[in-house]
Amino acid sequence: MLNIKTLFTIIVSLFTSVVFAGETAKISQQDLLTALNENKGNIVLLDVRSTSEYEHGHIAGAINISHDNVEESLSLLAQYKDNDVIVYCRSGRRAGIAERILAENGFNKLHHLEGDMNGWVAAKLPVVNSEHSH
Question: How confident is residue 3, by pLDDT bands cut at 50, 70 and 90?
Answer without folding.
Answer: low
